[in-house]
């Protein structure tokens, strides 16, 4: 098992745009395994490759209660979004300790490749819909706090930088 280290906001690398995966090969399958281990260890319900400083379009998600229903999204694309918007209190492994409300489409359809390179399409609602949209934002270099007011973003930046200094001292 290999745990990867998770970048923390406001690291500039969180704003890089990830490139599509060209071939789903053993290198990508190893990345998926390591990302899943890292997500379960955190613990979190999703993780985008961007968060582990790999700028390729790979996401792992597990929103199941028992935490053993891994979903792999390679080169995901949203094919439909509901006009109905829902607010959800989001958190992020790259912004630990910060939770705030974000508005997103309540339901989506998306397509992606699985870890075998097989294409699939599915509809999502609830936490899964939130999570897919949150993770796809990461691949485009966007962190959920960017939906908050500039004042809140500055407060969060200050708080995260202070926490980083405390960690460095310890
Ligand atoms: O673990 C996570 N929980 C979560 C809760 C509400 C909305 C989104 C998320 S995703 C987050 C893990 C993470 O940071 N993924 O990028
Ligand atoms: Ni996140």
Describe the fold and architecture:
By secondary structure, the protein is of the alpha+beta class. It contains 3 helices and 7 strands, in the order αβββββββαα. It has helices spanning 26-41, 126-139, 150-169, and strands at residues 46-48, 58-61, 71-81, 85-90, 100-105, 107-113, 119-125. It has a 5-stranded antiparallel sheet with strand order 1-2-3-6-7. Strands 4-5 form a two-stranded antiparallel sheet. Strand 6 (107-113) and strand 7 form a beta hairpin. The longest helix is centred in the last third of the chain and has 20 residues, at 150-169. The chain is globular and about 45 Å long. It starts with 25 loop residues before the first helix and ends with a helix. The site of nickel (II) ion has 5 residues, from helix 2.
Question: How are the SSEs ordered, and which strands pair?
Answer:
Elements: H1 26-41, E1 46-48, E2 58-61, E3 71-81, E4 85-90, E5 100-105, E6 107-113, E7 119-125, H2 126-139, H3 150-169
Antiparallel strand pairs: 1-2, 2-3, 3-6, 4-5, 6-7
Mean pLDDT, all residues? 97
Taken in chain order, the helices and strands follow as HEEEEEEEHH
Low-confidence stretches: none
Largest sheet: 5 strands, antiparallel
Q: Please give the number of β-strands.
A: 7
Shape: globular
Strand content: 25-35%
Query: In DSSP terms, counting alpha (H) and pi (I) runs of 4 or more, how many helices?
Result: 3
Helix and strand content put the structural class at: alpha+beta
> Fraction of residues in helices?
25-40%
Spatial order of the strands in the main sheet?
A: 1-2-3-6-7
- N- to C-terminal distance: 27 Å
Bound molecules: ligand GNR, nickel (II) ion
Radius of gyration: 16 Å
């Amino acid at each position: 098992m290999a745990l990867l280290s998770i970048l923390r906001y406001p690291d500039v690398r969180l704003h890089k745009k990830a490139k599509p995966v060209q071939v789903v090969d053993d290198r990508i399958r190893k990345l998926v395994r390591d990302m899943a281990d890292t997500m379960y260890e955190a613990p979190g319900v999703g993780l985008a490759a961007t968060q582990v400083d790999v700028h390729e379009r790979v996401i792992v998600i597990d929103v199941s209660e028992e935490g053993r229903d891994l979903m792999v999204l390679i080169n995901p694309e949203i094919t439909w979004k509901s006009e109905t918007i829902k607010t959800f209190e989001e958190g992020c492994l790259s912004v630990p300790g910060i939770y705030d409300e974000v508005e997103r489409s309540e339901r989506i359809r998306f397509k992606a490749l699985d870890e075998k390179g097989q294409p699939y399409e599915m509809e999502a609602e609830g936490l899964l819909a939130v999570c897919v949209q949150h993770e796809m934002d990461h691949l485009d270099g966007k962190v959920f706090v960017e939906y908050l007011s500039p004042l809140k973003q500055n407060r969060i930046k200050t708080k995260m930088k202070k926490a980083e200094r405390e960690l460095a001292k310890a």
